[in-house]
Structures are given as C-alpha cells and as structure tokens.
Design a protein that fits this description.
The protein contains 17 helices and 15 strands. It is an alpha/beta fold. The protein has 2 domains: about 325 residues, Phosphatidylinositol (PI) phosphodiesterase (TIM Barrel); about 40 residues. The strands form 4 sheets. The chain has a 7-stranded parallel beta sheet, covered by helices on one side. A 4-stranded antiparallel beta sheet has the order 3-7-6-5. Strand 5 and strand 6 form a beta hairpin. The chain is globular, with a radius of gyration of 22 Å. The protein starts with a strand and ends with a helix. The C terminus is likely disordered.
Length: about 400
C-alpha cells in the first residue's frame, strides 16, 4: 500500500511535468495505466478556441468590420479561455471543445456566431504537434456546432493526413487499456457531432459519433446558480452509474449569459465569465476532492472556463485532477486534504440598481462631479475586494 500524505506530494513529480502528466502518472502508478479511457478523469476546456481572441481578431459572423468598442463587448461575453490550444495542452488539459465555422469559405474557430480569425486547420496542426512531442499523452477532441457541410469535406481530407494519430473507430475502444493506447501513435480520440450526417470514409473510420459522449449541462448564469444546484449535480453524477458504459461522461461546469446577466454585467462589470470562472473552479476543486461519484469514476471530463486562473493553497487545478485519478486506484491510500471553502460576498442586482439610481439622483439634483467621485470610490473598493478574493 502506497501512502500519500497530501496533495502537494503528488505535484512534485507529476504536476511539474504537466505537458506529459498522463505518462508520469502511468509510470509512477502502473495500476492507473491498467484502467480504460472511460475509467479516468481529465480536465477539459469549454470553447477551447476562444484563447485566440486577441489583437482584435474576432468579429460577429458576416459583420467583420465592427468598431473596437463593439468587439470589446463581444470579447467580454464570449471569451472563455486566455490560453492558446498549445498552452492548454502543455498545462494539462486533455479535452478540447472545438467549434469550427465557415466564413467567406474559410474554416475558423468560433463561439456560436463569433468568428475567431484562427483557422481550424492550424488548430488541428497544434494538437498533432503536441502529440508528436509528447509521445504518450492522450487527447479527446469534441468537434461540434457544425454550420456547413464544407467542414465535412475539409475534415475528410485532413484526416487522411493525420490518420496515423487518430484512434480508429472501434466499438470496443473502452475495453482498451490506457497503457495500450499510450504505446501507439494513435492517441487522438475525436468525437464528431456531424458524424451521422456524412458518408465520408475517413470520418467514419477515424472519428466517433457523439453517442460516445454523454454530457450534463444545466443552464446557470452565475456562480450562485451552480452552488445552489450542488445536490442536483451530485444526483446527476449518481445517475451516471447506469449510463451506457461505452460513453465518456462529461460535466460542464461553466456559466452562460441571459438578459439579466448582461444587465448586471453592464452595470457593475463583475458578473463576467472570468470572475464567475474563478469561483466555479474553486467549487470544482472541492467537488473533486469530496465527491464519491468522482472517486467511483462516474465522470470522465469536467469542462471549465479560465481553468488556469485559480489556485487554492498554492495547488493548481491539474494537480487536483491527478489527485482524483489516484483516489480511484484501490492500492493507494491518500489522506484527504481539507480545502478551505471561501465564502464569496455577493451584491444582488437590486442593490446595484439602487446604488446607480442614487448616483443618478445626486448627479441631477446635486452635482455631477460628486456623483462621479462616489462612483469611482465604489468601483475602487470593489476592485480591491476582487483582488483580496472577498468578492
């Protein structure tokens, strides 16, 4: 029986090699390598391609020439990552949510109708380059939100060039041990949303339909909604026990905007994706280290926003995923670390609206400059609270 006192011990030899953490994990703990792909848990990113939303290189579909101000608004409400694909993979991400979209006959990455001027072809090349350098890592890529059959045509040709890296479509894939996949060059597991709508030979041979991926996502427009739904999340993870074993099970823990959310953000600049992601990622770390459903392999992938922006007790999220994988190995005893549950101070939308009404009254009936000074003071206090992790 191997005993590990705390999570920091794991990071010494594995986390410091985050670009090849799977290889290290299988080397140090061989029983983990005996597991199958649907019996491990890996970190994933939501809208992985949004890490390329830089230098004004994004626009609304068919409206390329928008002002910088409008583009900034698009970024605030559309950006889910701040790392490129290579940076994500090098820091441990092993599941990518890739959304190609055709615009002017070029296939770019996208977030719904937001086009990111980074080509789908270049994205795939980055992934292949990573697999070439890191010869035992496994990547799961979900290609989804397909908007044009031309993407099928492109993928058919592209797969011909990269087929030596792609795991062959095989109904028994979840009987293949991790060690066996690692020994092969074929370590890219592609799930293709449009699989059933094409007769492409290469797509049928080198990708899997989304029947191989089961995903739970409950609409939440802020961190509080996710925290309140904790019991629902646990119940759903419990239900995953009965899900077809020939599936990868994904938990999407991130927010999406509705109109109330947009109003809140416009008024107070706080309820954005990155701020909520910071809080949600702490919740994920607590979930991973306390949930029996995680320990029992009821989930394989957790999708995150801005995963690299959060540490707790100086421990990175990747280390927590490594910890979760070790918890599922029967011959390893790990003394669980007690994680600090930070209580976040949340200001309700009604109170924020009230504060702005008061400022408006002051500006109209007393002094505009006084209202501006009060606003800057409130905003300054708020930014300090964010930096202190109180808000």
């Amino acid at each position: 029986m191997i005993s590990i006192d705390n999570i920091e011990d794991i990071s010494i030899n594995i986390y410091n090699n985050s670009n090849n953490w799977m290889e290290k994990l299988a080397t140090y703990y061989p029983s983990w390598g005996e597991k199958t792909l649907n019996k491990i848990i890996v970190p994933g990113t939501h809208n992985s391609g949004t890490g390329y939303m830089k230098n004004n290189n994004y626009y609304f579909h068919n409206y390329k020439y928008l002002s910088r101000l409008v583009r900034l608004g698009l970024k605030i409400f559309s950006e889910n990552q701040n790392y490129t694909i290579t940076e994500q993979l090098n820091t441990g991400i092993r599941y990518l949510d890739i959304r190609p979209k055709i615009d002017n006959d070029i296939i770019y990455l996208s977030h719904h109708n937001i086009i990111i001027e980074y080509k789908f072809d270049d994205c795939i090349n980055e992934i292949i380059n990573f697999l070439t350098i890191n010869k035992q890592e496994i990547i799961i890529m979900f290609i989804n939100h397909i908007n044009d059959t031309k993407i099928n045509d492109f993928l058919e040709k592209k797969l011909e060039n990269i087929k030596s890296y792609c795991i062959d479509n095989n109904p028994n894939i979840f009987k293949t041990k991790i060690n066996e996949i690692m020994k092969s060059d074929k370590r890219l597991f592609i799930v293709y949303e449009d699989y059933n709508n094409t007769n492409s030979n290469n797509i049928k041979k080198y990708t899997f339909s989304n029947n191989y991926l089961d995903s739970y996502w409950k609409f939440c427009n802020n961190y509080d909604n996710i925290a309140k739904n904790k019991n629902d999340i646990e119940k759903y993870l419990e239900c995953y026990k009965s899900v077809d074993k020939n599936k990868l099970k994904t938990l999407q823990l991130h927010i999406n905007y509705d109109y109330d959310n947009l109003i809140y953000s416009a008024l107070y600049f706080t309820n954005n994706i990155e701020t909520n992601g910071y809080k949600i990622n702490q919740y994920i770390m607590n979930l991973i280290t306390t949930s029996d459903n995680i320990k029992n392999n009821n989930i394989n992938i957790i999708e995150m926003d801005f995963y690299n922006n959060y540490k707790i007790n100086n421990v990175n999220i990747l280390t927590t995923f490594i910890y979760a994988n070790l918890l599922s190995i029967s011959n390893i005893n790990i003394k669980n670390e007690n994680y600090k549950n930070t209580k976040f101070f949340n200001i309700k939308l009604s109170s924020i609206i009230l504060s702005y009404i008061i400022l408006l009254i002051i500006s109209i009936f007393i002094n505009l400059y006084l209202a501006l000074i009060i606003f800057l003071i409130i905003r300054g206090i708020h930014l300090c609270l964010i930096q202190l992790n109180i808000y």
